[in-house]
Predict the structure.
Amino acid sequence: MSITQQKEEPPPACNDKICIGIALVGEDIRVAARADGREVAHGSFPASALGTAALLCYLTDWQAPLRLAVATAGAAALGLALAVGASHGREVFLVSAQTHSAASDLARYAEHAI
Amino acid sequence: MNLNPLAVIKSGLFIGAKKPSGLNTLASYLSPENICLDVAVSNKLELFDVIGRHMEREHALPQEWVARSLSRREQAGSTGLGKGVAIPHARVKELERMQVAYMRLKSPIPFDAPDGNPVMDILVLLAPNQADEEHLRILADATQLFSDCRFRARLHQCGHASEVKQLFASWSQPVAPFFSRA
């Protein structure tokens, strides 16, 4: 196959880590998790102190390296990104909410980001 | 072009569907025998022992195994959420189905919660290893409930396990309609 005929391949997916998308939408923190190349869970926590604590609990539950993509749509979302990225072994990607705002899409983004 | 109306409906946009509140999901896991009020413990380890004994008595789960799983998870990070609530939980390989229990303590105990307050409301979750979706859903539902100060106040007024069960089952939040692509 000549170079001109080569198709553009999507970036390799990071399938050996848990990839999680997080979006702050109204009064909810929406979460989606991907493992082994597929979505394994999605849900939402209230956007409150309790909800943030529960989200941190959930992330700790994985007990594995995490790649987190957080949609940034304001100061609260940035604060959330800092909170979830505070633990060792986590990569956090800040994604413009205009690019991706759905938790599932963000999880997929985390899976493919280099 | 396929003009079969059923095919169109199946792939089309559903309008006006109501998002299930999901709060009754938690209630369906919580049986009256898994609700214990006025539990007397003075620290986390004692609590985990009590939970282990309860699970052994009611569900034939090894007491030490449950207590150790909860303790191990707690060492990774506190499951205290704040507002006097903690959700100690563990993923257990051999477990066949999710087990949920609610315990209200006689006196609050320290739990390293983010707000620094002791906890009195304990929601215990034991999940099978592969229950990813279920685990998140229950955790999210529980957080939604306990975030509501009115719910917590009503919970503290309950005098019997059956009242607690009824409260979990009947408490709901306003649900907004949403658009979903099938």
